[in-house]
Amino acid sequence: MTFRSFFPPVRTLMGPGPSDVNPRVLAAMSRPIVGHMDPVFIAMMDDMKGLLQYAFQTRNALTLPVSAPGSAGMETCFANLVEPGDKVIVCINGVFGGRMKENVERYGGIPVTVEDDWGQPVSLQKVEDALKDNPDARILAFVHAETSTGACSDVKALCELARRHDCLSIVDAVTSLGGIPLQVDDWGVDAIYSGSQKCLSCTPGLAPVSFSERAVARIRGRKTPVQSWFLDLNLVMGYWVGSDGKRAYHHTAPVNALYALHEALVILHEEGLEASWARHRRHHDALRAGIEAMGMSFLVDEAHRLPQLNAVMVPQGVDEVAVRKALLERYSLEIGAGLGPYAGRIWRIGLMGHAANERNVLLCLGGLETVLAEMGAVTPGEALPAARAVYSEPARAKAA
Ligand SMILES: *Cc1c(COP(=O)(O)O)cnc(C)c1O
Fold first, then answer.
1. Which residue's alpha carbon is nearest to atom 8 within ligand 1?
2. Count of the separate structural domains present in the chain
3. Nearby residues of 201 by Cβ (< 8 Å), 6 or more positions away
4. 231 and 291 inside one domain
5. CA 147 to ligand 1: nearest atom
6. pLDDT tens digit string along 61-76?
7. Is 313 exposed, middle or buried (0-12, 13-18, 19+ CB in 10 A)?
8. Distance (Å, rounded) from C-alpha 237 to C-alpha 58?
9. Is the distance from the beta carbon of residue 277 to the nearest atom of ligand 1 less than 6 Å?
10. Least confident of 31-45, 203-217, 384-398
11. In a shared domain, residues 259 and 354
């Protein structure tokens, strides 16, 4: 048997992540490897912290990328902040809130769930009621951008509620970071995690996290050791923060993967956060115009809809799997399927990071329209002019 090198096809990634990666990011990954304690690498890590602080809009000293995907960022927050017996209010309005609940249980906490229908944002009223009913709750946890549905929740208002009721907040920003407004310090977020492969448009495998001073004090004051050795921030800090100017070995940092994240964050910084948010919004507007011109609708109300994750209702009678298969085979274009109650009922079209551009929007609309027209589900000729009209509006073009 012979084994050959793996050469993947070039895809356009417009699903729920990973997203398209800027070629600069892939090029950065192939630069020479250095040791993870090399002074030049340590200097790059300090730079990385500044770049992540910019992306999160925070001055939190404990801001770093965990060496594993977004799920490990989630687990880092719960492993470090939840002690056995702690009551945690967990908001569930999609897949990822459900995973938060599992994390609380596995670390010995007592979850109190606040549930909203899939596609709805987290209800502020329900959270306030839960906080009032559970004065002993210590943490409020929720997802900013629910990737399973495309719904956006109000981080600022939820963190205000948490503070008023003496709770720390844990926020999932895996899909929000870089794509929509997020102000960690101004909004009073205590613990937040993200992922490298969504709106940061880096390769998968790293999870930026950031912790407020209140959260760090909670971690330092734990009565029990953090259950996970690998994710214990008290140990991780020895490498990422150091003491007396010295860094202690904890685990071998994924050196080249960190070059990639560094480059992705430099690209975000060059563009500017606000310009990036506006770009996501603009391409969403164009995509939406095309989708609606084909007579299709969105799962989430406009007021709570994420620009970077578009949950589009599959038209009656259409075999959604066949559509995704045709897009992949004929256009090398990936879009996402629905999950849970929306499996088979929605497509999830991502416009994340580098993938949020006019070429992709037109490719996706043209491909969808072609395939759906062949199935007799839509009348061709409507989608592209509608999107083009959005791109031709001078005010929008200037804002982006
Ligand atoms: C993708 C995602 C995660 C998990 O990230 P992985 O990198 O896949 O581990 C967690 N939360 C949300 C909201 C996500 O979209």
1. 70
2. 2
3. 19, 20, 21, 22, 25, 178, 264, 267, 352, 353, 354, 355
4. no
5. 15
6. 999 999 999 999 999 9
7. middle
8. 18
9. no
10. 384-398
11. no
**Percent of the chain whose predicted confidence (pLDDT) is above 70:** 98
| pTM for this predicted structure | 0.97
Average pLDDT over residues 96-111: 98
Q: Average pLDDT in the 346-352 region?
A: 98
How confident is the model over 272-278, as a mean pLDDT?
98
Answer whether 143 contacts ligand 1 (Cβ < 6 A).
yes
pLDDT category, 242, cuts 50, 70, 90?
A: confident
Do 256 and 373 fall into the same domain? Answer: no
| 142 Cβ below 6 A of ligand 1 | no
376: in domain = yes
3 lies in some domain: no
Whether 256 and 215 map to the same domain: the answer is yes
Residue linked to tokens 């994390």: 103
Measure 1 CA to ligand 1 centroid, in angstroms. Answer: 37
Q: What integer best gives the mean pLDDT of the chain?
A: 97
**Do 362 and 229 reside in the same domain of the chain?**
no
- Last residue within a domain, chosen from 237, 269, 301: 269
